[in-house]
Design a protein that fits this description.
Helices cover about 70% and strands about 0% of the residues. The chain is mostly helical. The protein folds into 2 domains: about 90 residues, Rna Polymerase Sigma Factor, Chain: A (Orthogonal Bundle), CATH 1.10.1740.10; about 80 residues, Winged helix-like DNA-binding domain superfamily/Winged helix DNA-binding domain (Arc Repressor Mutant, subunit A, Orthogonal Bundle), CATH 1.10.10.10.
Length: about 170
Amino acid sequence: MLELQLGNFDAAALLFERWKRPLFNFFYRMTNKRTESEDFTQTVFERMIKYRSTYTKGMSVKTWLFQMARNVSYTAYQKQEKRRMVYAEWKSGVAIEAPGIDQKLEKEEEKKRLWLALDRLPPAQKEIILLSKFQKIPYKEIGELYKCTEGAVKVKVHRALARLKTEYAKLPN
């Protein structure tokens, strides 16, 4: 990131290769729309280059990029009629990280149910689960994104997971 700030745009290509998949996965899990997720990912990297001067040495690149990702997501939310985003239901075979053929069908069905339950959560709860459990961003860094304490993030994650468990239990087997 520091190289990019100095004008070495080859560094942007390296950052793109490192972070495109985690960012795409984040957006895909938020929207369930491949094209939209690709567009949002591209937007984050455009903003990364445009706002490279806002990066501070010592700052986590991951946290900085995911803050941009949250902003891109929020902007899209605002553009969609100022109401909650409507999430599409899970469609089999569309996941970016599809399991190997050798995995058991039962595991695949459990995974589909989990994603269906995740789609039933309010956007804020879905987002915090995706950031903490799927992107594995530490609670402290999520606290920086949300401008709250690490303890508050733990509470938010706990409540979101409890809600996810309830929604999962409501789904038919």
